[in-house]
């Protein structure tokens, strides 16, 4: 008798990642060595989050961004998701050390939005400059809070400048 480790699926039948075939409840059979307890994946997720908290820039990848509260991956951290953690975008950025101007989206989505803005001439449609509309900005003279993200980037640039560029 021939035994397979996965259900036999007729052509053009959808199978979701849990092994269920469309409309049928069949279990995907895994060898015992590949089964992982849920606690292990949760522990791994906590360890990954701890690493991301040390350098939050690593949470923003080309095709995803990790929520530093729950560890979920998204293309964009929406206000709806942040509201589930009782946070606003500004509070999230302040809490985890992002620059105020950092978009909470993956790089691919940011590049797409930027290219669309250039194509549609969005910059030409903006008529207000914040420093002219809000005089308190001019009084501050460019003083602003420096976020963890910016400190880490500055540190990396200094370290790269100190290293010799020639082989020893």
What does this structure look like?
This protein has 168 residues and is mainly alpha-helical. The protein has a domain at 47-106: ROS/MUCR transcriptional regulator protein (Arc Repressor Mutant, subunit A, Orthogonal Bundle). It contains 8 helices and 2 strands, in the order αββααααααα. It has helices spanning 38-54, 79-84, 89-96, 107-120, 122-125, 130-133, 135-140, 148-162; strands spanning 65-66, 73-74. The protein has a two-stranded antiparallel ribbon with strand order 1-2. Strand 1 (65-66) and strand 2 (73-74) form a beta hairpin. The longest helix has 17 residues, at 38-54. The chain is globular and about 50 Å long. The model is unreliable at 6-15 and 20-38 (pLDDT under 50).
Number of DSSP strands?
A: 2
The CATH architecture of the domain at 47-106 can be given as Orthogonal Bundle
Shape: globular
For the biggest sheet, the summary is: 2 strands, antiparallel
Task: Report the span from N to C terminus.
Answer: 65 Å
Listing every helix as H and every strand as E from the N terminus to the C terminus, the arrangement reads HEEHHHHHHH
Beta percentage is under 5%
Number of DSSP helical runs: 8
List segments where confidence is low: pLDDT < 50 over at least 5 consecutive residues.
Answer: 6-15, 20-38
Biggest sheet, spatial arrangement of strands: 1-2
Mean pLDDT over the full residue set? 76
CATH class of the domain at 47-106: Mainly Alpha
By CATH's scheme, which homologous superfamily of the domain at 47-106 applies?
Answer: ROS/MUCR transcriptional regulator protein
């Amino acid at each position: 008798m021939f035994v397979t480790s996965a259900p036999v699926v007729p052509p053009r039948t959808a199978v979701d990642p849990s092994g269920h075939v469309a409309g049928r409840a069949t279990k995907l059979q895994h060898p015992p060595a590949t089964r992982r307890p849920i606690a292990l994946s949760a522990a791994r997720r906590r360890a990954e989050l701890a690493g991301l908290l040390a350098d939050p820039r690593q949470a923003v990848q080309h095709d995803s961004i990790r929520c530093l509260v729950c560890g979920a991956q998204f293309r964009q951290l929406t206000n709806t998701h942040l509201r589930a953690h009782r946070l606003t975008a500004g509070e999230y950025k302040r809490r985890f050390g992002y620059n105020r101007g950092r978009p909470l989206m993956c790089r691919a989505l940011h590049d797409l939005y930027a290219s669309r803005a250039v194509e549609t001439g969005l910059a030409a449609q903006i008529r207000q400059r914040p420093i002219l509309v809000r005089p308190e900005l001019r009084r501050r003279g460019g003083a602003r809070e420096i976020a963890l993200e910016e400190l880490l980037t500055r540190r990396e640039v200094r370290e790269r400048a100190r290293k010799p560029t020639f082989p020893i």
